[in-house]
Write a structure and sequence with these properties.
Layout: H1 2-6, H2 12-26, H3 38-45, H4 49-61, E1 65-68, E2 72-75, H5 94-119, H6 122-140, H7 145-160, H8 164-168, H9 170-183, H10 187-205, H11 209-238
Antiparallel strand pairs: 1-2
Helix pairs in contact: 2-4, 3-4, 5-7, 5-9, 5-10, 5-11, 6-7, 6-10, 7-9, 10-11
Length: 245
């Protein structure tokens, strides 16, 4: 099965949670809709009922599902929390969402980097350097931990900017990074991102706000171009337009 190979490195409950979310999107459930009962979901997910219960509980903690005692499981009307506070998980058009999130990142992240170059302490800069090195080591070792560290790098920058509103908007940036990592695998993009992190770090270390701003903007533009190019190539292949190559 496709979803098994796609998520095979993850724990069973996590895989079941992700597949359940996929089913919700595929079937077009909306806020307030009731999900099939536990037995039917177990059949759909090809797992045991105890795993279904854990998967439902996992999505409930993210405010995606709501369990009503004696009634069943429903799509929650609450806004998401922590991991997905803007409920991006329920957006079906992933390409549109990814490109729209890039637009938001254009507005936020260059300014974040600029402020960090102005206000970061020496200790902050040392922490950033540690993360950049850790990302490079993880990529070199083929360790998927680099994905988590990438998110952490951008979160740290927002925190160091000293702007509370910037920090509260980090889920926008985080979700963009997660979407890219989930759907795009271009190796050149990884290499370019490593160099971009270096450039951003260097500008911050040199206390050069304009260079930090420009380096972050260049980073986001570069990643966006690669993502859109890869998406275009996949679309062409899907429609049989690359057969002449």
């Amino acid at each position: 099965m496709y979803w098994r190979t796609k998520h095979m490195a993850k724990p069973l409950v996590e895989k079941a949670s992700e597949r359940l979310l996929e089913l919700i999107l595929e079937r077009g459930y909306e806020v307030g809709d009731k999900l099939p009962n536990e037995y039917e979901l177990a059949q759909d997910l090809e797992v045991g009922r105890s795993t279904v219960r854990e998967a439902v509980r996992s999505l409930a903690t993210r405010n995606i599902l709501e369990v009503r005692q004696g009634s069943g499981t429903y799509i929650s009307s609450k806004k998401g929390v922590s991991e997905d506070p803007l409920v991006f998980s329920l957006v079906r058009d992933r390409v549109k969402l990814t490109t729209d999130l890039f637009e938001v990142r254009y507005l936020l992240e260059p300014r974040i980097a600029e402020r960090v170059a102005q206000f970061a302490s020496d200790e902050d800069i040392a922490r950033l350097e540690e993360i950049v090195l850790a990302i490079e080591e993880a990529v070199a070792a083929g360790d998927t931990k680099h994905l988590e560290l990438d998110v952490k790098f951008h979160c740290m920058l927002a925190e160091m900017s000293g702007n509370l509103a910037m920090t509260s908007l980090m889920p926008v940036i985080n979700q963009s990074i997660h979407l890219i990592n989930e759907n795009y695998s271009n190796r050149q993009m990884k290499s370019d991102s490593l160099q971009a992190h270096r450039n951003i770090l260097m500008a911050i270390k040199q206390r050069h706000p304009v260079a930090a701003y420009d380096s972050m903007l260049a980073h986001i533009i570069s990643v966006r171009q690669v993502v859109l190019s890869e998406w275009f190539d996949k679309d062409m292949t899907l429609h049989g337009l690359n057969d002449h190559k």
